[in-house]
Structure formats: structure tokens, C-alpha cells
């Protein structure tokens, strides 16, 4: 299971936002943490932002960053912009079934 403390982003422009995610078991393999972050806007498919806990997906703004290890992970959005509004998911991609 994965628990997020906040998933819907609603903040003032320019702020830094941190979203937390806690897994119920370790998702570490070969020294890599198999945790991904997605952004979903209304009516759209989820967009991959971060994978392996901290690797930025190609084409994603560097305002997004991921960190964490073990059971606790964080997505940080710096200088948040209106276009960042949406729903955010963390998902383990260590094992099937994928859980978020």
C-alpha cells in the first residue's frame, strides 16, 4: 500500500510545494528506489514526472524534483505555476500489481 498526505495541488504561484508519499514496504532493488510520480489534469491521462524516486522524465520542467528512500518519498514543485494545478500520484514500479 501507498499513502499520500496530499494529492490535489492548490497553491499560490511562486510557492514551493512538497507532496509526501509513504510505502508500506521497501521498493529498493539494485540500489534504486522504484517510485514514480504522476500528474493528472482533468480529462487527461496521467503524465509521468519522476521515476526511480528522483529521475526527471524527459521534457518535464526542472521545477519538479523527487527525493526519498526506504519508505518515505517527496515530490517537490518549486516556483509553482497555475499550469501545475491537478492531481498528483505516487506509484511503486517495483512489482506487480502496480499500486498508487
TrEMBL record:
<dbReference type="Pfam" id="PF07686">
    <property type="entry name" value="V-set"/>
</dbReference>
<dbReference type="InterPro" id="IPR013106">
    <property type="entry name" value="Ig_V-set"/>
</dbReference>
<dbReference type="InterPro" id="IPR050150">
    <property type="entry name" value="IgV_Light_Chain"/>
</dbReference>
<dbReference type="InterPro" id="IPR007110">
    <property type="entry name" value="Ig-like_dom"/>
</dbReference>
<dbReference type="InterPro" id="IPR036179">
    <property type="entry name" value="Ig-like_dom_sf"/>
</dbReference>
<dbReference type="InterPro" id="IPR013783">
    <property type="entry name" value="Ig-like_fold"/>
</dbReference>
<dbReference type="InterPro" id="IPR003599">
    <property type="entry name" value="Ig_sub"/>
</dbReference>
<protein>
    <recommendedName>
        <fullName>Ig-like domain-containing protein</fullName>
    </recommendedName>
</protein>
<feature type="domain" description="Ig-like">
    <location>
        <begin position="1"/>
        <end position="100"/>
    </location>
</feature>
Amino acid at each position: 500500500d501507498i499513502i499520500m498526505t496530499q494529492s490535489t495541488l492548490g497553491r499560490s504561484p511562486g510557492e514551493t510545494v512538497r507532496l509526501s508519499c509513504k510505502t508500506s514496504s521497501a521498493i529498493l532493488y539494485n540500489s534504486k528506489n522504484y517510485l514514480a510520480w504522476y500528474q493528472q489534469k482533468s480529462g487527461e491521462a496521467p503524465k509521468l514526472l519522476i521515476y526511480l524516486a528522483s529521475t526527471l522524465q524527459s521534457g518535464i520542467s526542472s521545477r519538479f524534483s523527487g527525493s526519498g528512500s526506504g519508505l518515505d518519498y517527496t515530490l517537490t514543485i518549486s516556483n509553482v505555476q497555475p499550469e501545475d494545478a491537478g492531481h498528483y500520484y505516487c506509484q511503486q514500479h517495483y512489482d506487480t500489481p502496480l499500486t498508487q
